[in-house]
Amino acid sequence: MNSKPKHYRNFAAFVLKGFFILFFLLSFVFRVETSFAGVIKIGEINPLSGRFAKNGIEIHQGIEVAVAQTNAKGGIQGATLKLVTRDDQSRPDVAISRAEELCSWEKVAALTGGYVDSLVGPIAAVSQRYKTPYVASASLQKELAAHNNPYFFRVSRLQGFAEPLCKFITERFKGQRLAVLYAATPGSTELAHDLKRCFQDRGLTVRLMEKFRPGTPDFTPLIAKLANMKIEVIVSGGFTPDHILFIRQLKENKISPKAYIGPFGIAYESFISALGNDADYLYSTCAWNPGITTPGTEKASASFVNDFQKTFHHQPNTTNMHGYTSARAIIAAIQKVLDNREALNGENIRQALTKLDVTLPMEHLSFDSNGDPTHYRHVVVQIQKRKLVVVYPPDRASGRDIFPMPSWEQRN
Predict the structure, then answer these.
(1) pTM (2 decimals)?
(2) In a domain, 9, yes or no
């Protein structure tokens, strides 16, 4: 028989119950705030199916390499990184639901991935609502950085294309009859108008500004217009399939501009393979490629190429590197938080990102007050003998460009 008074036993039971509730709540808070006790979750949302699947898969591969490299070195303070990947199916509505899932249910430390701003924008909005930092892998639209979202960061921006390209074209092709063509997408449209303003400021006249639909099945009418206007230099903001068709139809119609420049979609091994020798003499821009890396990062770049090839059995490209860079930004921020013995939560990771200053193969990475990368900058390349040759700026050049490019008849 229990000799303790009933009220004593009730009080003891109440205290014990309260202790367990407190223990549970503290454990929950500890798990949320410091999920590094064994595993740190990083969320990734990419278009792994649908119209942007090729690009999304390439970004995913770069992110995978960054996570694998970190885990191979023992993780972060002994904690293993776990990549929680979701497919947005190239659809903004799906991107929103995937971001909701990762932030609310999976409680990831941060988000990365993202290709094209129509998908990046919705993810950024969700990340702000949950106060989960988001480092986008491929984003250009200026408007996104003007939304006053302190949890949004990105490793690329439009100025990184426009500024070096404008300087190169005005210095190299002044006096030539110039046309600027652009796809009906936000990034391509913004680039075209930025270039036009820059050209005008530098005294270069744009003879034709023309918009076209991505995936246009026939460029012949536009090519005829360019020929009638005696256009000598073509700048086209199309994408890989657009460039391939455009070049093939230029050749079919025996139209030989002095220069063809495609900022997007040309500086890829897959593009050169598709066009073969017809890709020679075309210009593009490039943030990174095997052999084209931020000065002083040659060893780090070679390590990335080696690890990538071991995993995926082919050479990486600049899209892979954008994924890798965005993941490395998050990893560096998490490392900083833990080194400072701070709680691993969204606010502390965000603060670490605002102070980030690391040199990676693609860029010296730091962010301005809008989350834009401070030093993201492309080089101008020309394809020569099916290889990318850096021709601008002079301090990064690996060769001289060939201008004007030979006519189709001269090549044959």
Answers:
(1) 0.89
(2) yes
